[in-house]
Amino acid sequence: MAHHHKGPCSDGLLVVAHSTWFQDAQRDAPVPSVPLDHATIAERFKGLSADRHMWPLEDARIDALCGDGGLLDCGLVPLSELAYVVDYYRRALEHAPCDLLYCQPLASWDEAELRETDDLSFRGYDYGYYLGVENHFSAVHNDILYGRYDLLRAYADHLNSDLLLPTLELVQDVHHDRTELIHSHAALEHDESFIPIAIFVPASVA
Question: What pTM value is reported for the model?
Answer without folding.
Answer: 0.90
